[in-house]
Amino acid sequence: MDTSSVLDAVRQHLGPDTIQQISNTLGTDPATTSNAVSAALPMLLGGLSHNASHPEGAAALDQALDAHDGSILDNLGSILGGGGAGGGIGGAILSHIFGAKRGPVEEGVGKASGLDPQQVARLLMMLAPIVMGVLGRMKQRGNVSASQLPDVLQKSTHEAQQTAPGGFDPGSIFGGAAGNIAKSVLGGILGTK
After folding, report:
1. What's the number of domains the chain is made of?
2. For the residues 40-47, what does the mean pLDDT come to?
3. 175: Cα within 13 Å, side-chain hemisphere
4. Closest to 73 in 3D by CA, of 18, 144, 149
5. What are phi and psi of 20, to 5 degrees?
6. Distance (Å, whole) CA 84 – CA 72
7. Which pLDDT score, from 0 to 100, does residue 180 have?
């Protein structure tokens, strides 16, 4: 896996069976789920890219990836099932990727995908650990370093935007000041306050 394949690696874990499992959890059909995933991935990658665009955020994300070694990718059922097992970790990741922008992100994904707010929130909570797991596995295998994170994530965000419904643009949400998002990435993803 090279540093340019974050999106490809995420998509490898989102095959037909996984999409069906997500669909079952959300109560949607696979086509709707696939469309929603295409809207959600640019936002997740865009949020991470925004955080990593600042040295402090890139360093915090790099450290957080030590806790996300990719092992979750070997047991996706634990975060995709209807029991909400992924809600805790997924919710924590989302809060610290998006901070106060979580509401606008969920609203944007909902508008682009047609999912209701609860479905969008659950989808993002399922996808966030997958994205972090992919990045963590890339770091563990020596394929991405803290200094590479900004470029890798920016490239992956752009790539994800190309397949997003309606040209969905993370820049419309993340274009402003960083605020405290980058500062909270490490503590939140590691489960500390």
Report:
1. 1
2. 92
3. 5
4. 18
5. -65, -40
6. 15
7. 35
Q: Name residue 14's amino acid.
A: L
Give the end-to-end CA distance of the chain in Å, rounded to a whole number: 33
Q: Dig out the tokens for 104 from the structure.
A: 């606008």
DSSP secondary structure of 64-131:
HTTT--SGGGGGTHHHHSTT-HHHHHHHHHHHHHHGGGHHHHHHHHHHHH---HHHHHHHHHHHHHHH
User: 168 pLDDT band (50/70/90 cuts)?
Assistant: low
Range of the domain at 103: 6-189
Query: Is residue 145 a part of any domain in this protein?
Result: yes
Residue 173 has pLDDT above 70, yes or no: no
Q: Is the pLDDT of residue 165 over 90?
A: no
| Closest alpha carbon to 178 in 75, 72, 58, 82 | 58
Is pLDDT above 90 for 4?
no
Q: What local confidence, expressed as pLDDT, does residue 69 receive?
A: 80
Please list, in sequence order, all residues whose beta carbon lies within 8 angstroms of the beta carbon of residue 56, skipping any fewer than 6 positions away. 182, 183
Q: Per the domain annotation, does 1 fall within a domain?
A: no
